[in-house]
Give the backbone structure.
Amino acid sequence: MNDRASEVRSTASAAEWRQRVDLAACYRLVALFGWDDLVFTHISARVPGPEHHFLINPYGLMFGEITASSLVKVDLQGRKVVASPHDINPAGFTIHSAIHAAREDAQCVLHLHSTNGVAVAAQEDGVLALSQHSMFVLASLAYHDYEGLALVEDEKPRLVRDLGDKRFLMLRNHGLLTVGRTVAEAFVAMYFFEKTCEMQVRALAGGARVRRIPAPILAGAPAQWEQVTHGSGGDLAWPALLRRLDRESPGYRD
């Protein structure tokens, strides 16, 4: 562990450090899966405890470079609450702070500009019931119309209104967003969201008529999601994902 990591770990609670490790792992996994967009998207997580403090990526680091100690701790206004050599992207935290403030269960907010996600976000009908993966997304999906770069505070109430109590949010012409009670839950949700979009793009590109999943089958998707993911916590897949990171992208725990 380097000096910076030792310094941050010595001042963080055990719960905060675990959250830092999970969030750094999430950034590394997004890079590993090829969903990153240079340095321009964000994943945030709430620091456990009574304060409304959050962790977010240092602006300028690639997702594959992020470590537990390099994450920046900020308040709901995006102000650093612990000294850090890094700044954050104010546009990124506009979206995240709005959702964290409105949703107690949104302990992690994951936002991407993935190619497949933006492609489907640009399609008028959004997510179609074309795959088994899409059933789980459609069971808890909301949409938010594009209003330009997320720099204006005035957009926050509309963003919160459109998300409501849903787990998945498609930002029209912009990208994908998931919320989770844990970092693991937000990541697993994003895996299903991104995979749904990838499958839709390929199905439509084939040129043949597509077959949609019937509505009665879609109606049973929420209960099936809970069963398949062991309560939507993502805990089933997360340990295996961390083992993969330890093999392919070690160092995120520093």
About this structure: The radius of gyration is 18 Å. The chain has a mean pLDDT of 91.
